[in-house]
Amino acid sequence: MTNAYRIEANGDPVLQEDLEIIAGDNGRFSALAGSSLLITGATGLVGSQLARALACYNRVHHAGMTIYLLVRSRAKAEEIFGELLARGDVVILTGDVTDPFRDYFPDDLTLDYIIHAASVTASKLMVEKPAETIRISLEGTRQMLELAKQHGVRSMIYISSMEMYGTVDFDRPVTEDDLGYIDPLRIRSNYPESKRMCENMCVAYHAEYGVPVRIARLSQTFGAGILRGENRVFAQFARSAISAQDIVLHTAGRSEGNYCYTRDTIRGLLTILLHGADAEAYNVANEVCHTTIAAMAQLVAGQVAASPIRVVFDIPESNTFGYAPDTKLKLSSAKLRALGWEPEVGLVEAYRRMIASMTWQQAE
């Protein structure tokens, strides 16, 4: 068996190290042995990292899992996962998450776990196609809950977002019991409002049908193995550092960001899947990585970039980039940490690992 056939990161040594570290936590995740699991949004950042991590776990521990990946484009999945798809334990299902689940998940297949990661994530698309963003969020989640009900799964995770909190008017860390204000008349509110509705849909399916669903409210997640087309702010900052070009901000950068390295996020999601409580929500954030956009830009320019670069502000008169309004939000991860999860990677190391991974990708 060749290394390319065995290795889940398609040769990326930084990402492979992350996957091996996740796989090493067998005691926490041993319940996965012999199970079947579906991941939606499997060609996105979080979905693809979950798929790779579970495939690595499967190989290292001979766990006998079957990992189903729901994707709209098989060609895109083959480009992302490469020879990993030839192993047999990772199975591609082609379909749209908003279509009836029986169109792509036959009744004769068994299913133990679902991680629903499919969602619109690009702010620009949320502004350009707000109705489509809402449709994907609501109907996709309903289909996954129906699938979970049909198969009597052991557990399901709905991946929500820190954006569902809206704007809060206090300075203390935000817990899962808090809720801020969202203006329903702003076009960009389609994303956080639909996340709130989907969370309530999860609670409703648990109350009415007993679906064992848990909710993960993710902070901004990045790290080794980000997809080549990624254009969110963390990728833009990293590319500026790699190319020794100034970081250009199109806002004042006052929004407070909550961040978590991909490896820590994946470990958090698996912890919630196997050890969380039904109809409960959990913040997934590294509290020490809380910072403003402007401060993070300065961190990359001053502590990460190998060559001297500056942070430059170029703020347009209108919000043509679809950025969310400035937020003052610091997430508490105490509830998830109470399940035994602890984040390990800080912002500087997260950027250095991501940049090393991106540099490897460019060399290929």
Write out the strand line-up for the largest beta sheet, numbering strands in chain order.
3-2-1-4-5-6-11
* Gyration radius from CA atoms, angstroms: 20 Å
Would you identify the regions where 5 or more consecutive residues have pLDDT less than 50? none
CATH topology description: Rossmann fold
Structural write-up:
- The chain is 41% helix and 15% strand.
- It is an alpha/beta fold and 364 residues long.
- The protein has a single domain (3-222, 260-287, 329-345), classed as NAD(P)-binding Rossmann-like Domain (Rossmann fold, 3-Layer(aba) Sandwich), CATH 3.40.50.720.
- The strands form four sheets. The protein has a seven-stranded parallel sheet, with helices on both faces. It has a two-stranded parallel sheet with strand order 7-10.
- Strand 1, helix 4 (45-61) and strand 2 form a beta-alpha-beta unit.
- The protein is globular, with a radius of gyration of 20 Å.
- It starts with a helix and ends with a helix.
Write the layout of secondary structure elements.
Blueprint: H1 3-6, H2 13-23, H3 26-29, E1 36-40, H4 45-61, E2 66-71, H5 74-81, E3 90-94, E4 113-116, H6 123-128, H7 130-151, E5 155-161, H8 190-209, E6 213-218, E7 220-222, H9 233-243, E8 247-249, E9 256-257, E10 259-261, H10 262-275, E11 281-284, E12 291-292, H11 293-304, E13 311-313, H12 334-337, H13 347-363
Parallel strand pairs: 1-2, 1-4, 2-3, 4-5, 5-6, 6-11, 7-10, 8-13
Antiparallel strand pairs: 9-12
